[in-house]
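Re: folding output
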Amino acid sequence: MSFSANIQARGVQLLLSGMMSRVHKDLRFTDIPKHTETLRVETGAGPVDCTVYRPSATATGTPAPVYVNLHGGGFVVGRPEQDDHICRRIAATAGCVVINVDYAVAPQRPFPAPVTQVHDLVEWVAGNGTANNWDGSRIAVGGHSAGATITAAVCRLARDRGTFSPRLQIIDSAVLDQVADPATKQSLIAKPLLTPQLMRIFAAAYVPDPADRADPLVSPGLADDLAGLPPALVITAEHDRLRDEGDAYAKALEAAGVPVTHRVFEGVDHYFTHTGPVPAGKEAIDLMASSLRTALGD
């Protein structure tokens, strides 16, 4: 990665760090109490800190299933607290433990560090249920934007290595093709949230060598061997520059025999689950929760 590209990425990192933690006031779900604790897990790419959200105790006392959540931020912003509203809503309404992951970010820790960290974390979650009072046999992984890209990569890696089998992957507004020039990714509105220049900075920070951007762990949408991946909930936003590749990925998964629920939310742009419009944001988060409740049920 060139010196100038590194400086650009760090500048964007500083600029967006505060902005990314802002969530529309009507999407914060402050009426839902938090039952949280912190967790640190050692991985092959260094330790990972997590916030664990617990659902209210059930009458049976049966250990709850687990959902591992990966925040967005273009692979460069490390602010997992931006997903607090999603985590607390899912823990409360889906009845699962939610593990919100503070994975490594670029340019300090580029690919493959985040993928390795999250894969190893989920493998640890699956194997350490009894000690942590959750059901490691019932797990799901999901994320938003960059976190959704990492989700797709981790599920692929788990399939190839046979390390764990998520019951569901949630792919919300992912970047799935990092080979195509971002300027070719069109939106239906004049000024979408993601600009080509910003997307280029993200890509250069996360995968400095352009030759690596066709790697299916970087660009899952370019892979042609999707059979055997976990069932998927794919969410796309009508006005998002990433909408077309998300729609295409959902179709490709389905063609490969993977059970897919695909929902295009109309009239919204990237990151709408955080900034609104509120009705669409709530509907998308509740779709995640209901999908998890179904997938992780006994």
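--- second protein (sequence, then structure) ---
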Amino acid sequence: MVTPRTVLRWHARLVARKWTHPHRGPGRPAKPETLRALVLRLARENDGWGYRRIHGELLSLGRKAAASTVWEILKQADIDPAPQRASRSWAKFLTAQAQGILAVDVFHVDTVFLRRLFVLFFVEHGSRRVHIAGVTCNVTAEWATQQARNPLMSLDDVRTAGIRYLIRDNAGYFTEGFDAVFTAVEARVVPILPGVPRMNAIAERWVGSCRREATDRILITGERHLRLVVDEYADHHNEHRPHRSLGQRCPDGVGAPEPPAVDASSRVIRRDRLGGLIHKYAQVA
């Protein structure tokens, strides 16, 4: 059935299989996956930590590992050393400084008679609270400077003193007089770069929400009507609308205790705003 050479080859394979020990690669044994995952987590959550700092944190957590092990894990994951990894992006800056940032912007609305109106508003980055400063058909430097005083008057002394930065675009009506209103309270004015609206992303996000949920769904007749609409929407935004960045709380609800638990027998009622365009829900016994 087979040749003698085939039988000898089979026998040689059996001998080799019996006496060949399992191959073991050179170097140390593989690191536990839990240790690797923890090192990578610490590196990603703390972009200023180098491998020595991460090694120290592991020791404080009772994880025994050499500093060279941490360095090797980071290298294998293509994670740069701390000086190169530390991000100085605009998003990081906004997050770190949120409580001291006030942003301003202007958006327009066209009325049913094709007249263009402009809304000047401010938004607090930390709380996402919106302040409607004014509505006009012609934005001038004098008008913008006068309206800039409105949000400062509506804030208490502590919140006014906490403003460290004002973010605005480079429109012509934001002049030195406008900036002086905020530099007087020791705030630094930060103009965004041309063509980079994401530098004022919080304000732009609110404009989008206001358009989608209110002004784009109503025929605006004039300045007074637009002011009523945006004021009503701003109140809804501040008092009820949940925000993911605030843990699904509204700006006025930040720091408030959790609502009490309710049972299935509780009834939910609806309250309408803007003629039923916006709905607000509440529990009743």
